[in-house]
Amino acid sequence: MERYRPSAMRQQKSQTIPQEPNLVPIMNLFLTIIPMLMMMVVISQIALLALNFSQGEGGVTTGGGGGGGGPVTEKVEIHILGKNYAASTNFLGMEIREPGVATKNIPAINGFYDYPSLDKALQEIRSRKGDLNDITVLVHPDVLYGDLMKTIDLCKVHGFSQVHYSAPKVQYY
């Protein structure tokens, strides 16, 4: 029986061809993590929207408690009407409602909301009511998030520092 030194025994093992690493598990991990991270970004953007804007209140507010009336706060509302609403009323677009002023309709052009006309309407409101800071955007359920953000951005550009958003009240008959 021939004896090998320990180092010689290691050298006599059969040499195997180096194998490529199995990348399938790491690829599966990335295919799971990337969509999850993208969803978290969207959720955090929605959470930031909820932090930056307060939910709209209902009605015109008059002074506080039991004695005397405070100043009346006028409430300007922009209604972004969705396609489901348009199917029942034949109107797709936006409505601007102010107390004491006729409702202004801004119809959509080729199925898209008319933001230049909304811009002009907001300029007109700002010129008439320079001290008004509150404006409410009412969004129907089928309006896209991007349309809501464009409307809120236009309001902010024209100096409305308190932009509230809300969903219209649903009435069942």
Question: What features would you describe in this structure?
Answer:
The model is unreliable at 55-68 (pLDDT under 50). The chain has 173 residues and is α/β, with parallel strands linked by helices. It has a domain at 77-166: Nucleotidyltransferase, domain 5 (2-Layer Sandwich), CATH 3.30.420. The longest helix is centred in the first third of the chain and has 29 residues, at 24-52. 14% of the residues are buried. The chain has a five-stranded mixed sheet with strand order 3-2-1-4-5. It is built from five helices and five strands; from the N terminus they run H-H-E-H-E-E-H-E-H-E.
Strand content: 15-25%
Rg, alpha carbons? 31 Å
What proportion of the residues is helical, as a percent range? 25-40%
In sequence order, what are the helices and strands, one letter per element? HHEHEEHEHE
CATH topology grouping of the domain at 77-166: Nucleotidyltransferase, domain 5
Per DSSP E runs of 2 or more residues, the count of β-strands stands at 5
What best-fitting shape do the alpha-carbon axes yield? elongated
In the CATH scheme, the class of the domain at 77-166 would be Alpha Beta
Termini Cα gap? 101 Å
Features:
five-stranded mixed beta sheet; 5 helices; 5 strands
Describe the secondary structure blueprint for this structure.
Elements: H1 6-11, H2 24-52, E1 77-81, H3 83-89, E2 93-98, E3 101-107, H4 115-128, E4 134-139, H5 145-157, E5 162-166
Helix pairs in contact: 4-5
